[in-house]
Amino acid sequence: MNRENEVVISHIRQEFSIGDKTLEVLKDINLELQGGSFVSVVGQSGCGKSTLLRIIAGLDIPTGGEVRIGGNPVQSVSPDVGILFQESRLLPWYNVEKNIAYGIQEKKNRKEIRDTVYELIELVGLKGFEKALPEQLSGGMQKRVAIARTLAARPKVLLLDEPFGALDAFTKMNMQEEILKLWKKEGITMMLVTHDIDEAIYLGEHVVVMSPKPGVIKRSFRIELTSDRSRTSAEFDRYRKEIFAEFFEDQTMVPEYQI
Ligand SMILES: Nc1ncnc2c1ncn2[C@@H]1O[C@H](COP(=O)(O)OP(=O)(O)O)[C@@H](O)[C@H]1O
Ligand SMILES: [Mg+2]
Fold first, then answer.
1. Range 15-22 contact pairs with CB under 8 angstroms and sequence separation of 24 or more
2. Which helix (H) or strand (E) holds 15?
3. Does the beta carbon of 26 sit less than 6 angstroms from any atom of ligand 1?
4. How confident is the model over 33-53, as pLDDT tens digits?
5. Strand-pair partners of 153
6. Could you tell which of 13, 16, 195 is best to mutate to test the pocket of ligand 1, judged by most ligand atoms within 8 Å of the CB?
7. Residue 25: in which H helix or E strand, if any?
8. In angstroms, what is the span from residue 5 Cα to ligand 2's centroid?
9. Whose atoms come closest to the Cα of 85: which ligand?
10. Per-residue pLDDT tens for 102-140?
11. For labelling alongside 43, which of 50, 199, 232, 240 has CA 20 to 30 A away?
12. Exposed, middle or buried, 72 (CB in 10 Å: 0-12/13-18/19+)?
């Protein structure tokens, strides 16, 4: 266990004002991620998953509560926390190398940048595509570039906000393998938000189920799969059924936009 990478979320509340109304988006969220662990979060649209990730990343300040990373309170954006979105958000006029180096340009000298970019290109399997522009790459390859760019800052924590939602099924499975490999190799603490229950079980050591209005943690599952993580095994199916049941139990399919 690595204390430096530990994420402790305590009593997080988030409220937004819309006109004269207050929208309670997150209510008393408590969660501990051990250093180097992998936690998946599932929950219906609008239950505050992205809001929670933004708070952990220091992009938003919560109404109440605190997030600590390696014991230090999160107060603003920091290179310790990387975040990956559904859209790859690459710069279209920069090639692969330049996109990866984009965030570290001011912090390192030229040799350090070159070495980091080279290492990351190897890591994400893009050798030979260093000079390609984003438009010349498939969706999966663009995703690899986005992952490499995020890793360039050497984050302790990687937040993934439905990162594979726009990919086709096979590319998605491929990327899931890549993320698993990276996680095992780099020892980064991972928090994955997804609407795909299979993905949550396949990747997470824990699956946290959130429910909306206000966003709360409903239940947390510890996933213990035998080493091969087979998606077709009986134990996988057992988790799938249990989580589905949790998800739809209270059928709070209230319209997302209703305040
Ligand atoms: N900056 C904001 N101002 C007002 N409301 C917001 C803001 N950000 C998110 N919300 C609202 O918070 C709720 C949760 O949003 P979000 O965290 O994006 O949910 P999820 O990622 O689970 O789909 C939604 O109702 C959304 O409209
Ligand atoms: Mg979201």
1. 15/63, 18/259, 21/259
2. strand 7-18
3. no
4. 999 999 999 998 899 999 999
5. none
6. 16
7. strand 21-33
8. 24
9. 2
10. 878 777 788 888 999 999 999 888 999 999 999 999 999
11. 232
12. exposed
Q: Where are the domains of the chain?
A: 89-154
**Please, which residues have CB within 8 angstroms of residue 45's CB and are 6 or more apart in sequence?**
195, 256
Rounded distance, CA 64 to CA 35, Å? Answer: 24
Cα–Cα distance measured from residue 83 to residue 14, given in angstroms and rounded to the nearest whole number: 19
Give pTM, 2 decimals.
0.91
Which residue has its alpha carbon closest to ligand 1 atom 1? 16
Sorted by sequence, the CB contacts under 8 Å of residue 183 that are 6+ apart come out as 38, 190, 203
Scanning the structure block, which residue is given the tokens 């988006």? 25
Find out whether the beta carbon of 139 lies less than 6 Å from any atom of ligand 1. no
Please report, for the chain, how many H helices and E strands are present, in that order: 7, 10
Residue 28 three-state SS: strand
In degrees rounded to 5, what are phi and psi of residue 39? -120, 130
Among 201, 134, 202, residue whose Cα is nearest residue 174: 202
